[in-house]
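Lab notebook, bench 4. We co-purified these components, and the gel suggests they stay together. Before we commit to crystallization screens, I want a quick structural picture of the whole thing.
Request: model the full complex, all chains together.
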Amino acid sequence: MDFDLMFSSLPKLLGASVVTLKLLSVSLFFGLIVGFLFAILRINKNIFINKFAYGYSYLFRGTPLLVQIFIIYFGLGQIEYLRSTFLWVILKEPYWCAIIAFTLNTGAYTSEILRSAFQTIKPGIIEAGKSLGITNKIIFYKIQIPIAIRQSLPAYGNEIILMMKGTSLASTVTLMDLTGVAKYIISTTFKPIEVFIVAGGIYLFMTFIIHNVIKFLEKKYSFNT
Amino acid sequence: MNIFKKTILTVLASLFVIGNVYADKIKIGTEGAYPPWNSKDASGNLIGFEVELAQELCAIMKHECTIVEQDWDGMIPALLMRKFDAIMAGMSITAERQKTITFSQGYADEVASLAVMKGSNLVGMDTPEGINLSLGGSDVKKALKTLTGALAGKTVCTQTGTIHQNFLESGDVGNINVRTYKTQDEVNLDLTSGRCDVALAAAVAFTDYADKSGKPVTLVGPTFSGGAFGNGVGVGIRQSGDDAIGKRDAKLLKDFNKAINTARKKGIISKLAIKHFGFDASM
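Here is the predicted assembly.
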């Protein structure tokens, strides 16, 4: 065990985890918007809208994230027509390709988490609102959404942790995130065990923080207290 | 009791024999993704200059060999973890690598080159045909200065953990935006897509890609050798030690050196080089 290497690589890896956190937060932010929109489409009664939303979530939950990144980064980059459009400004950058892949992936999972949360709301609660003369719109915003958010917290916490680990795939499209920098250090020191232990420790620490924040939120918005 | 003892002895003896046969079989690691040095055919078999050379060297050493595939970024760690006994993967002999492993004498020399897509403004750069960084001198300095100016602000792509990356990050060509990839294939893809303004690898890696893909990839600037680019390509072997495996590694190094000598004298290396590179890259 080369402890000196572990200590000396720590600052570099910590610096790289900022990139990881940035990738995570940006894709979670956009993913939440996408997921929310598709969750609403999923509970829509129109069969076409419903199937469209289901198709999206089926596609992105049914294929590996790595394949999605490769298709978006290397695949789209090979389409000559695309390179002449304004889209290329975004797709040219590995960072945005990773964000797009992560967003679409987490969006698909988030839409399913929120959909099931919406569907667990007991009809009685909505009927109670209606009998009090509250409009459908207000029932949706003030009753359904808060309950759905509370219901989906545990599952969404898991999704954040899965996504955090998923960001390690950004290193496959040249981004220097935590995994990318770990691989870089290994390429010059040839000592994968030491470096990956430190990188793994940092991932574990991030999971610890996320887990506890979610636990705190769950307690705070619990119905029982 | 006697039968019991006998059985154990037989089992142990057979284990020893099997173990010995196994240890005698040399495992050679290669990347299988760096044509024409080493690559894979459509059905997944390892092919290329080094795969054929490895078979020739093993025939000379009268050893049975198996060639195994290993990703480039895990090549040296895998050797150290004894997943195989030797590396033949277009790996240049550099001082940095020699801190961790040892090399046989070189069997082939590669020059590195920058490549761009035709129509790039880097085409027609005014530099000598080739520069040797070990020699230095005013020519080299002038060429590096020209390159520094031409590459400023450009995204230069190369494979992770290569001599090419070392050179780009050495500061010899100024502060450029270096982007690294897991394989040369990916570098080629991003060069043609336009994400990379320019790429650096073995010159033959680009000419081979241009030939096979028909993409307008073209070499620019000087060819590079010496300095960060090392001293030719050799067989990578674990540093020898005092234990049984360490002694075996020492013998392996000697055997490979002898076999390379023989192959060179018989013209086998030249023949294979001409077949795969189109010119005699043997050394």
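The domain at 20-175 of chain A is CATH 1.10.3720.10 (MetI-like fold). Worth comparing against the SEC data before the next meeting. The first helix of chain A runs from residue 3 to 42.
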